[in-house]
Amino acid sequence: MTNLRAGLIGLGMMGRHHARVLRQLEGVDLVAVADPGGDPHGVAGGLPVLPDVHALIEAGIDYAMVAVPTRFHTETGLALAEAGVHALVEKPLATDTAGARQLAEAFEAAGLVGAVGHIERYNPALQSLRARLENGDLGDVYQIATRRQGPFPARIADVGVVKDLGTHDIDLTAWVAQREYTAVSARTANKSGREYEDLVSVTGVLSGGLVTNHLVNWLSPMKERVTVVTGEKGAFVADTLLADLTFHANGLVATTWADVAQFRGVSEGDVVRYAIDKPEPLRTEHEAFRDAVLGKPADVVTMAQGLATVAVAEAVLRSAETGTTVQL
After folding, report:
1. CA distance 73 to 156
2. What is the pTM of this model?
3. Per-residue model confidence as pLDDT tens digits over 295-314
4. Any idea where the domains of the chain sit in the sequence?
5. Omega cis (within 30) before 281
6. Looking at the domain 4-119+282-299, which fold is it?
7. Which residues contact 78 (CB under 8 A, 6 or more apart)?
8. pLDDT-derived band of residue 170, with 50, 70 and 90 as boundaries?
9. The domain 121-278+311-327: what is its CATH number?
10. Residue 327 CB burial class (10 angstroms; 0-12, 13-18, ≥19)
11. Count of helices and strands (H, E) across the chain
């Protein structure tokens, strides 16, 4: 069987990682790369650096990886859809819901595979967590809380922390819980002097009344990527930096000392850190998209799902601007 011909547009910080994985991917040949700004990280290898998406299309590609800045996602994706080229677009899908909807509708109308690079779905810790929740290991789920903090990344210039980092947590929370957001209330801050917000705190509600909290910023000296799911039988803690998943069980031994029992509430039980396989999430994401293009069963983040995430992010920003809870 002939290998799929892949193209990559956007050779920045993320583009270099996509190029590496595409070159390693079985059944795929990276045949063309493009970036009007050149190749700052030297990832093109022996390939010429093409000037734009149209030149990339003319190279005769089967699918494209779109890693350009967010503000160019819509026009780039629409050009690929018009040319009949499948596309995996870095998250967020677009800068706003209007652009995201255009992309989702264009790829669906053309019968093409269109997907969004919400890479946290492919993190081994979160995949294991989702399977365990689906299996009922936690019983009734009460709350999902995420923390995503760290220093400012120089790669980001055209969106704030909500649409960059925050969309990770919005998507992974809805995906892990298998529920949709129904309301959000948020506050943002701008402490670094940039045009966009660099800190957000969100309280949300998912279908069924599940409460979620997200703390996201570009202002912290330490890097933290944590998802905590609390429920009837205890709590799961997923550290997505290390791809570790830990379960803190509610205790089965009664605390007879009344004062301590009142202070602690739910008693402490066993703690288990699971041994799970840890493939690279980016590679898993590309393998899933390759399989989808080939018509095989594959778990990709659809553009319709990417659109829903952008809509929640916009609701978060609207809530922060108006000081109100926004219903979805």
Report:
1. 14
2. 0.92
3. 999 999 999 999 999 999 99
4. 4-119+282-299, 121-278+311-327
5. no
6. Rossmann fold (3.40.50)
7. 102, 103, 106
8. very high
9. 3.30.360.10
10. exposed
11. 9, 15
